Amino acid sequence: MRVFLTAAAMLATTAIATITVVPTAWAADSVLQAIKQAGVVRVGTTGDYKPFSYKGADGALVGADIEMAKELASTLGVRVEFVQTSWKTLMDDFKAEKFDIALGGITVNPDRAAVGDFSVPNVSDGKRPIARCADKEKFTTVEKIDQPTTRVVVNPGGTNEKFARANFTKAPIEVWPDNKTIHAQIAADKADVMVTDGIEVDMQAKLNPGVLCAVPVATPFTHFENAYLLRKDPELKQAVDAWMTKALSSGLWKAKLDAAMQ
């Protein structure tokens, strides 16, 4: 936890000043002020979600949101420090103040908004299925997917698992722990379908041409927005919102996303 040094007056009989270490949660200074004082913004990300945040075999993080985090740090006049998290531990890590901002395809929802501030959204999307190309016409509705013979696969702890648990009562659900290799389960005929964010569906179909296909649904099964999750602080939210609004209007965000989709 980041700490601050604050001068605290001793009892009047001593009139001696002392230095007290105060946890971040108790400090009067804002989160943004703390970031600038430390000279670093700590960014939590899973590193398993193309095109937003992905850690390659060399350990380097790439993706649209990774590049945006670097841009944001520059705007704030600090350096960026990436902190590894997972979808299952994201909120526990966030509550433990292991990072100041979480990003990488994070869906806005009430549970997350209760403990943090969301930035201006940078993605509007919806849940869609991905399947082997030969089977793509089999899974065009929730009802067609929710059959005892359909093997649904999900990554643990995020909105994909939450959607599957809420909508599939007949189809068996397998939780696959590694979001980097989960789509290979479908390609290898060890699972049949995954319902995930539409942009991830399109990305994986592009990465696996002729093998994995976006299922041609009439409309996405849900609608949601992605944004950056910030520790609660009006100053930090104002700064990030102003920066994100400019990035959206100038085309910076689109350029970063387009590059990451290649």
Give a summary of the structure in a few sentences:
This protein has 262 residues and is of the alpha+beta class. It contains 10 helices and 17 strands. Helices cover 33% and strands 25% of the residues.
List keywords for this structure.
262 residues; alpha+beta; five-stranded mixed sheet; three-stranded antiparallel sheet; 17 strands; 33% helix; elongated; disordered N terminus
Description:
Strand 5 and strand 6 (about 60) form a beta hairpin. The protein is elongated. Helix 2 (about 65-75) packs antiparallel against helix 10 (about 250-260). About 40% of the residues are buried. The chain is built from 10 helices and 17 strands. Helix content is about 35%, strand content about 25%. By secondary structure, it is an alpha+beta fold.
Q: Assembly type of the shown chains?
A: single chain
Strand ordering within the main sheet: 7-3-8-17-9
Count of discrete alpha- or pi-helical segments spanning 4 or more residues: 10
Q: How far apart, in Å, are the first and last alpha carbons?
A: 38 Å
Number of strands: 17
Radius of gyration: 21 Å
Structural class: alpha+beta
Morphology call: elongated
Low-pLDDT runs of 5+ residues are: 1-28
Compressed to H and E, one letter per element, the order equals: EEHEEEEHEHEHEEEHEHEHEHEEEHH
